[in-house]
Design goal:
Blueprint: H1 4-7, H2 23-34, H3 39-45, H4 50-68, H5 75-105, H6 110-120, H7 122-125, H8 135-152, H9 161-165, H10 169-179
Length: 186
């Protein structure tokens, strides 16, 4: 017969399924990310599906939250925290490299400088498009929008806005003058 203390001993290997995420798989994904691949494409190229990838990242974010709150990260979750940290660093490295190449191209190609300004300072440098619309067209569009809104509210708007909307007499008169343009002076 065995001693009671031997019967209660914790197993050396955690029970359950082994994680699909391995250090080798992580290294492959990180290598592809550093080369500029999107995370989901990098994962798919090594045989990891989208839902699996999202699950790993969610577990990594939960572990990061524990770490950031000063709590201990369970040993079985450290793998996912490392994955999250490694993929974040790889994404950042790829972006920094691309930005460095872009910036170095600005010396020889004005278009690289223009594209950099458009991307980095879009509020000032992005191309703008001006649209001209006649006053008649704008009135038509406004009237159509008001009618559609009133219909959506279940209000029959045609004909008597003052009656339907229960407006005060001054506002009713102002609406009538908008509907009736002034007669041309002779």
């Amino acid at each position: 017969m065995t001693a009671p203390s031997e019967e209660r001993r914790e197993p050396l290997v955690p029970l359950g399924r082994r994680p699909l995420l391995t250090p080798e798989l992580q290294a492959q994904i990180v290598r592809l990310l550093t080369a500029g691949s999107y995370l989901n494409v990098a994962a798919q190229s090594v045989g990891v599906g989208r839902s699996t990838l999202l699950g790993w990242l969610a577990r990594g974010r939960r572990a990061a939250a524990l770490r950031d709150e000063g709590q201990e990260v369970p040993p079985e979750e450290r793998l996912y925290l490392d994955f999250l940290d490694a993929t974040t660093r790889a994404d950042t490295a790829a972006e920094v490299y691309a930005a460095t190449v872009w910036r170095s191209a600005m010396k020889d190609d004005w278009r690289a400088a223009r594209d950099f300004l458009r991307a980095r300072f879009s509020d000032r440098w992005a191309p703008t498009q001006r649209v001209a619309i006649s006053s008649e067209e704008s009135e038509t569009r406004i009237e159509r929008a008001v009618e559609e809104a009133m219909l959506a509210l279940g209000v029959d708007y045609e004909g008597a806005p003052g009656d339907v909307l229960d407006l005060d007499p001054d506002t009713e008169e102002a609406l009538r003058t908008l509907d009736d343009p002034p007669a041309p002076e002779s």
